[in-house]
Every structure is written in C-alpha cells, then in structure tokens.
Amino acid sequence: MPDNTITLPVIDTGVIISLILVILIAYLFIRVITFTLVFISERVGHHRITVKMVLPLLKFSIYGFAIYYILIYIVKWESSQLVLFGGLFGAAIGFGLKDLFADIIGGIVITIEKPYQVGDKIKMGNYYGEVSDIGIRSTKLVTPDDNLVSAPNYLIFTQAVASANAGTSEMMIVIDMFIDSCSDPVLAMKILTESVMTSKYVYVSRNRPFTILLKDFPFYRRLRAKAYVNDLRYEFEFESDVTRRTWKEFSGNGIEAPNINILEAGTINQTNAS
C-alpha cells in the first residue's frame, strides 16, 4: 500500500539562516522604499498624498513575495505540506492568534479597498489624526497634540472610519462664530466671508466652494463658515486665522458675543457638536 503520510521538511541551521536573511532583506528593502517615497512626497507639494498612496501596497507585496520565496525555495514545501501547514496555522489562530490574524487581514482590506490612505486625516474610534503609516498590524496616526497613536487594523471591521479629505490634500473646515441676536447679521456675514477669502490657507475652486450660513437661535445667532484649507496640515492654523481676524473686525464694528448665562451656553455646545 502506498504511504500517504505527510512529513514536514527538516529545517536545519542553513535553512534558518536563509529564512532570517530573506526576512531581514525584505524589512530593510521596505525601510529604504518608505524613506525614499516619504522624502519625495514632502517635496512634491500638492501631490504629497498621491505619492504616499503606494506605500501600503508595496509593503504587503514585498512581505507576500518574501513568504512565498521562503516556503517554496528555501523550505521547499510541496502542495500537500502547504495544506498541512494551512491546517496547523488555522488551529493556531483558533488557540490565540486570531487578533494578530484579524490585524493582518484588516491591513490587507485597508490596502485594497482604501477606506483611508497614508496622508489622510481620519477619525477611527476615539482617535483622530493624520495617517502616517499603514503597517501589517496597525495604522499609525499623528494626533493634533503630536502624539503617535497605533490603532489596530482590525478596528476597520468594528469601528466607523471617517476620512476628512479622502486622498486629497485639501480638506473642508467648519468654523462656527456666535454673535448676539441684536448684532447686524448681514455685516457679520460679510466680515466672516472676507476673513475666509483673504486667509492665506484657504483653497477655493469650482469643486471646492465655500459657504457662509446663518441660523437664528433664541439668545444668539450662529454663523457657520464651510471652506477648504489648501493643505490639511494647516487645519488648525486656518481655523485660528479666520477666527482671530473675524473677531477683530467684529469688535471694531459693534458686533458682540452672545450675552447669555452658563446654562444657556450649554445649548451652544450641543449645537456646535451637530
């Protein structure tokens, strides 16, 4: 009778050394490519995010090729042995590696479907910041406080992810200004419009218009400016610039802040959040 026993190949010292070398070469190659593309992207201005888009795909492609090379040409596994390895790997996932596997699958999904990309400003769960890297296991975000946060890739399956710019360098910014209900709303809107249009950070085009909205509330009026910043990295500079110059003009034209108490101020916070 034929022997149908599946045996794993013997892994000696030479195989282990070759395996380590392939992994090390793949890692170093990824580091060099990442450094080079980031260096180039920071010097192409408006196309910075476009250049960084290829980083996740390159990473997974290089690691995938390295694993394939190790299994086929170094370890020299046959199809039957690969099937056995797949079964053992599946069992390992069930016994405690499911989180790691979910992170890896999440990274692949992010790379293929692109719900966000390197350079995007995103909100994932409780985190908000610019995506600086999409790795095998986690996505790295630089928060407004300049903290580096590593968010597990599996969150793509469990959390809503919002991308503020969706692969472009421009990003919409919403700026709310609250004035007293007795102040001149037409003049206030004109001042806010001029502050937005003359900001050095604003970006206006046919596809990137700006809007000034006015809404009355019982004790105050809300002016809301919706405009695009020319580079998402200037998000807070743009907001501060418009706010500062608008209030300077408000003060010189008799437009005052709402005269309300602390309890009523809570209504403003709820409205601003909406």
List strands and helices in order, with pairings:
Elements: H1 13-41, H2 48-52, H3 54-74, H4 79-113, E1 121-124, E2 127-134, E3 138-142, E4 148-152, H5 155-158, E5 161-163, E6 171-180, H6 185-197, E7 202-203, E8 211-216, E9 220-229, H7 235-252, H8 262-273
Antiparallel strand pairs: 1-2, 1-5, 2-3, 3-4, 6-9, 7-9, 8-9
Number of helices: 8
Distance between the termini: 75 Å
Q: Strand order, main sheet: write it out.
A: 4-3-2-1-5
Secondary structure category: alpha+beta
Plain-language structure description:
By secondary structure, the protein is an alpha+beta fold. It folds into two domains: 7-168, no CATH class; 171-273, Alpha-Beta Plaits (2-Layer Sandwich), CATH 3.30.70. Helix content is 50%, strand content 19%. It is built from eight helices and nine strands. The strands form two sheets. A five-stranded antiparallel beta sheet has the order 4-3-2-1-5. Strands 6, 7, 8 and 9 form a four-stranded antiparallel beta sheet that branches. α1 runs antiparallel to α3, α3 runs antiparallel to α4 and α6 (185-197) runs antiparallel to α7. The longest helix has 35 residues, at 79-113. The N and C termini lie far apart (75 Å).
